[in-house]
Design goal:
single chain; alpha/beta; Aspartate Aminotransferase, domain 1; Aspartate Aminotransferase, domain 2; 7-stranded mixed beta sheet; 16 helices
């Protein structure tokens, strides 16, 4: 039996390798920043979620050090036993105040926040409406729930409305969407989604992991950018991207919904509380976001420059304005080869292929940061152009 399992798994691994989509991990020997060190060599880092450059910011490091000295290394417990410190409550209050919601609850990751949401709040009489390209954590969370599942075409509000009309007999209904979609940087039409939710008496949930901290005038994410603050019932997001890049996630929203999550959400009840140093550094990150709007300005300047420059050279990129910049290649082997050749040129990027993206949508996903300088981006553009011309990806 064991040998049969081993052979079957080996066959699957060989299929992955033959398709050219084996995921390899490079080991970084430096802080996460605009540049990283791999095997003693410095690389320009263009694939981190470090949107505001806070992963190695001295204010966050100092806050984490103080918490380490004063509150210890880890909690060694779940929240309801002896895993709650004042820092956890302070951070939950800070999150809800920042997003202008009633309350917030911390998780070890946004993945846990999403997987612990739907089965806690909904059951057989209810219905969930999910965008076709929602993040895997939303999909997995919905799979754990016994509610009826509706999958509307990506960003297709007519299809969503049609399905809402068909589902009027369900007890509770909720529309679930990414605020920003991680592969293409598209912003969900939250204004229209909230309008439909009000018309058809549904709740709205948005995962704002790729927006919290930098999208919107005050960095409050897609809910601020789309002018729907106060209209989205549940917001999930992460502390592991723009908010310092460590770990931790949260759900913020209506008081009653957060209260029942605290009582019954399984990832919350059965996972250790986030470390005190992470909570303290996250509090410092929220302070920085409010005190340093220049970080957001620099991020958007970098994004505009690089998107425009790539397009002018001849690259095919997804239109938009988000610092996620998908450089489309269309073939998994060539996308992987280009990423490797760019690495040899001093650029750290990663290729994405099916099942992470749809077949034929193979790409290199560039992610820009406020930590990048214009010189960094000019260097990247020169190397991208050199490799793409050699591979005949651009003329």
């Amino acid at each position: 039996m064991i040998e049969d399992v081993r052979r079957a798994l080996q066959d699957e691994l060989e299929k992955i390798d033959k398709a050219g989509i084996t995921k390899e991990e490079r080991v970084i020997a430096s802080p996460q920043s605009a540049h990283v060190i791999v095997q003693g060599k410095v690389y320009l880092n263009l694939c981190a979620n470090n949107y505001l450059g806070l992963a190695d910011h001295p204010d966050l490091i100092e806050a984490a050090k103080k918490a380490l000295d004063q509150r210890g290394y880890g909690m060694a417990s779940v929240r309801f036993i002896c895993g709650t410190q004042d820092l956890h409550h302070m951070l939950e209050e800070r999150i809800s105040r920042f997003l202008d919601t009633d309350a917030a609850i911390l998780y070890s990751s946004c993945f846990d926040a999403n997987t612990g949401l739907f089965e806690t709040l909904f059951s057989e009489p209810d219905a969930i409406f999910s965008d076709a390209l929602n993040h895997a954590s939303i999909i997995d969370g919905i799979r754990l729930c016994k509610a009826a599942r509706y999958r509307y075409n990506h960003l297709d509000m007519s299809d969503l409305e049609r399905q809402l009309q068909e589902a009027k007999t369900h007890r509770f209904r909720i529309i679930a969407t990414d605020g920003v979609f991680s592969m293409d940087g598209e912003v969900a039409p939250l204004g229209r989604i909230c309008d439909l939710a009000e018309q058809y008496e549904a709740l709205v949930m948005a995962d704002d992991s790729h927006a919290t901290g930098f999208l919107g005038e005050g960095g409050r994410g897609s809910i601020e950018y789309c002018s729907v603050m106060g209209r989205v019932d549940l917001i999930t997001s992460t502390l592991g991207k723009a908010m310092g890049g460590a770990s931790g996630g949260f759900t913020a929203g209506r008081r009653e919904l957060i209260a029942i999550l605290r009582q019954r959400s399984r990832p919350y009840l059965f996972s250790n509380a986030i470390p005190p140093m992470t909570a303290a550094a996250s509090l410092a990150a929220f302070d920085l976001i409010e005190k340093r709007p220049d970080l957001r300005v620099r991020l958007w300047e970098n994004t505009q420059f690089f998107r425009k420059a790539l397009t002018e050279v001849g690259f095919r990129i997804r239109p938009g304005f988000h610092p996620i910049v998908p450089v489309l290649i269309g073939d998994p082997v060539r996308a992987k080869e280009m990423a490797q050749r760019l690495f040899e040129e001093g650029i750290y990027v990663v290729s994405f292929s099916y099942p992470v993206v749809q077949v034929g949508e193979d790409r290199i996903r560039v992610q820009l940061s406020a930590a990048h300088t214009k010189a960094d981006l000019e260097f990247a553009l020169e190397r991208f152009t050199k490799v793409a011309k050699e591979m005949r990806i651009i003329p």
